[in-house]
Amino acid sequence: MWFPLDSVLSWGPYLYSMSLLDDQGLTEVVQVAEQVLDAVNQGLYKEATQLWGKAEMVVEQNADGVNFYNILTKSAPMSEMKSSLEFTQSYLVRLCQRHVRYLQQDTLSQLMNGPIRKKLKIIPEDCFWGGQATDVFLNMEKDFMKPVISIVDELLEAGVNVTVYNGQLDLIVDTIGQEAWVRKLKWPELHKFSQLKWKALYSNSTSNETSGFVKSYKNLTFYWILRAGHMVPSDQGEMALKMMRMVTQQ
Fold this sequence. Notes:
This protein has 11 helices and 6 strands. The longest helix is centred in the N-terminal third of the chain and has 19 residues, at about 25-40. It is about 50% helix and about 10% strand. The protein is an alpha+beta fold. The relative contact order is 0.13. The strands form 2 sheets. A 4-stranded mixed β-sheet has the order 3-6-5-4. It has a two-stranded antiparallel sheet with strand order 1-2.
């Protein structure tokens, strides 16, 4: 789950603490993040999306192309979008390329359109993994930056189990931003959740290397996954599998 405003506002401090921004870079990132905040506060969500794209460019310029999905790596050069997509707004082109392409890597596409399609036996022949991603992205232009924290409150109040997990090295949805929106919840039990101490997690019973931390109270659980970026299962597969077993109570 992504609450973009809290993420954008925390990018500067997070990157600065990880030695990926200097003082000037921090100032520039914070300034554009505040522009995003102003647009959201005025209900200008389309403009806020445009400014989100601007914020990412400022980050990349100051952090030497840092990868938004794992800060210990660099973003690959952006490829040209197919002309048939008929994009008309350059900032949406950049946003789409930066974020959708990670879901359309060759190995993942081959897996989903091959073995997984055959296994499920329900995917229509004219439907392909990732085929709708660009259209969905474009049509969410006015929705990306809308606050939806109240929906989580509704889920918690209804007794639905809510699990939040975050990779330590993720930037697009950094841990600081995730923790920020959790603190904004109006759930009556939040103070009891916040007062708990987290518990260390290990990927297996023989390992003494900490792989993450977890905190859980009633139907809210938060996992902090170490040495992982946005793609937790690919960065820390064993720990991701253990987390899934814990979530599903296996």
